[in-house]
Specification:
The complex is a heterodimer of chains A (315) and B (68).
Chain A (H helix, E strand, L loop, with lengths): L1 H11 L2 H8 L3 H30 L19 H6 L3 H32 L6 H13 L2 H11 L6 H10 L15 H26 L3 H9 L4 H29 L3 H6 L11 H10 L4 H31 L1
Helix pairs in contact in A: 5-9, 5-11, 6-9, 9-11, 11-14, 13-14
Chain B lengths: L18 H20 L4 H5 L1 H15 L5
Helix pairs in contact in B: 1-3
Classes of the chains: A mainly alpha (315), B mainly alpha (68).
């Protein structure tokens, strides 16, 4: 009865008034809701990217905004791709990325394999292992600086206890040989749990009946690991490697907090060089070109990452 | 009533230009460019790394729209 009355009222309402009452369409409402996000994304992501591409072709300096900006064409790119110092910074980055990924993958996979055995209290140990990953890089950088202190740091004392070298001789952050390794240790400590989580997801996705079939065939534990566990967890390990590769390639905070690129330029990774060129030498155009080169490298890696992700999804 | 199997229409898209193969080639080019960027052996390889990576990335974006 009530519905019928409502229908008759709706039919009797003149069309312009009805449109006013109904308000905007569903599509219009959807656009209204997502437009602030789109605008924000355009303002803080897309516009700076295009602006940086434009600046990379100029001699613009952010500390001299009133100076005439000259178009240099590809000169900035040519200079960067022929610069020996930037080439060395790239090699430092590669050294850092290679060792962190190798250590994180080996330790992360081993931890995941152990945790997957479901021993008593495994949930507690999983939580404990995950703690470093949850901390802020600023906090981690600062407390590892204290740990590395040769006078008061626990790290130097622990090494001294094992090796009998006096703790004051263990200068992790100011020794040219040790400084890159000090960053590798901290990054490995912080991000191994992340690799462990991805590997654990891979290990948990292996169906139990495959192991049961292997048991029936009397395959040894070693054989099961090489023929079942590792091949089936490999796409997940690859995913972790790619993800950590992309992240470590852009690494800035930890290096800046621990060594600031020093001693000299032994730990000067690409992002530290970029910061020095942009905010110490104020070569904005040049550093924009450098940032675009790094962006293309990361974007290329991200494409491979997406391809690997799709392969994992197809499983 | 006879049941006829639906026949699959043969794609006219050339076999060599299928997505899978070309995506793999693009990925290989990106990986080669990446290695050229970080290798410590020759400055010339470093110089041409960016253009190699860019070519691989652009190729990947284009060929990922191709039919399988």
């Amino acid at each position: 009865m009530l519905n019928r009355t409502a229908d008759s009222v709706a039919r009797a309402t003149p069309e312009p008034l009805a449109r006013k009452v109904r308000g905007i369409s569903d599509k219009g409402l959807a656009w209204l809701f997502i437009s602030p996000t789109i605008l924000l994304l355009l303002a803080i992501n897309i516009f700076p990217l295009f602006w940086a591409i434009y600046l990379s072709f100029t001699n613009f300096r952010a500390n001299r905004p009133n100076e005439v900006v000259k178009n240099l064409g590809f000169a900035n790119y040519q200079r960067i791709l022929g610069d020996q110092d930037i080439w060395i910074a790239m090699q430092t980055t590669a050294h850092f990325v290679f060792w962190t990924i190798l250590l994180q993958t080996l330790i992360g996979f081993t931890l995941a394999w152990l945790i997957d055995r479901k021993f008593r209290g495994h949930a507690f140990w999983t939580t404990i292992i995950l703690v470093p990953m949850m901390l802020s890089p600023a906090v981690v950088g600062n407390f590892w600086r204290f740990l590395y202190e040769p006078q008061i740091g626990l790290f130097a004392y622990a090494i001294s206890f094992v090796t009998r070298i006096p703790p004051t001789d263990i200068q992790m952050l100011s020794n040219v040989e040790l400084a890159p390794w000090s960053i590798i240790i901290v990054d490995t400590w912080m991000w191994t749990p992340y690799v462990m989580l991805i590997c654990l997801a891979g290990l948990r996705s292996i169906p139990e009946y495959i192991y049961e079939a292997a048991e029936v065939d009397r395959a040894s534990n070693w054989r099961q690991f090489w023929s079942i566990t590792l091949p089936m967890a490999l796409p997940f390990i690859m995913l972790a490697v790619l993800f950590r590769g992309i992240e470590n390639f852009k690494m800035f905070d930890m290096v800046n907090l621990l060594t600031g690129g020093g001693p000299g330029s032994t730990t000067e990774v690409a992002s530290i060089t970029l910061k020095r060129q942009a905010f110490e030498s104020w070569r904005t155009g040049y550093s924009s070109a450098f940032a675009i080169i790094l962006f293309v490298a990361v974007f290329g890696l991200a494409n491979i990452y997406v391809k690997a992700l799709n392969k994992v999804k197809q499983r | 009533m006879s049941m006829t199997k639906p026949t699959k229409r043969k794609s006219r898209w050339p076999r060599w230009a299928r997505r899978g193969l070309l995506e793999n080639i693009a990925t290989a080019i990106i990986a080669i460019g990446f290695l050229m960027l970080f290798q410590p052996f020759a400055l010339a390889l470093y110089t041409y790394s960016f253009i190699t990576m860019l070519a691989g990335t652009v190729m990947f974006i284009i060929v990922s729209k191709f039919p399988e």
